[in-house]
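Problem 12. The chain below contains 302 residues. Write out its predicted structure in token notation.
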Amino acid sequence: MSWARGLRRVQGTTLGDQDGRSKDSERRGAAILDGTYRQVPAVSPSRPDLEDHHDRSAWARRATPEIIRTGTQLRPVPLIPGIRLHQASDPISLWQRTELTSGPTGEDPPFWAFAWAGGLALARYLLDHPETVRGRHAIDIASGSGLVAIAAAKAGAAAVTAYDIDPDAAVAIRMNAAANGVTVRAVCADVLDQENLPASGADLVLVSDAFYERDLAIRVMRFAERGHARGADVLVGDFGRAYLPRDQLTPLASYDVPGQRMLEGSDIKRTTIWALPGRPATAASPEPEDLEQPPQPRSTPR
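Solution.
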């Protein structure tokens, strides 16, 4: 089940016109929940002067921190009370607020505004087992809110880089890291198919909640295997989504993750921490020189 389809189970959410939404909004909301929403960029009615798509993107980047501050609440996450994230209570409302502010830019739904089960379990595991990350150079792919990256930094990682293809997520990661008093380098880029990444200096690859689509799962595993071949350990947090390659992974621990009814349809999700088995093929170099040099274009959305 994809993240977007998981949002269909949001409790108390309806897509009718009781809040003054038009039928257009109703159809758009349903498409958001199905994961099929891809709108052609158009001039924002609230910003008619932004006629160029690049100008609208620049406006969206300027508006994002304010959207995060006003559209979410900074509060502790389930299972890890020591970490606070900017979290939304309603995905549709936040999505609509984003469009009203920055225009319908065709971006993905705000996955970054929620704490997902795989990320919660993996973050808890890192804090429970700091020896797995202490002093290491970690990268977190499809980072979303930055939860796992923040946990890695709190557990003593020497450096943490968080990648996500959503520019709003990159801003949220920086804000969440600052709120938790840690340093995380947030990079907006699609890096899964870049042969130079993970760089040999990265010795821990972190993945959570990324196996909800077949093609994405294949790309994630290729990325993880490249990192493993270059000396990195690989840890995955996932409760068993449709395309999790169980036969290629070894389970390490499991957690009962609470507070998941809105996102996943049940109050508790039994979520497993997995590892790519075997020792990394090569020793990691001491400095991750390439970690800060990803390509910038976005190629494949979630």
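Discussion. Residues 14-113 form one domain. Students who got a different answer should revisit the alignment rule from Section 12.3.
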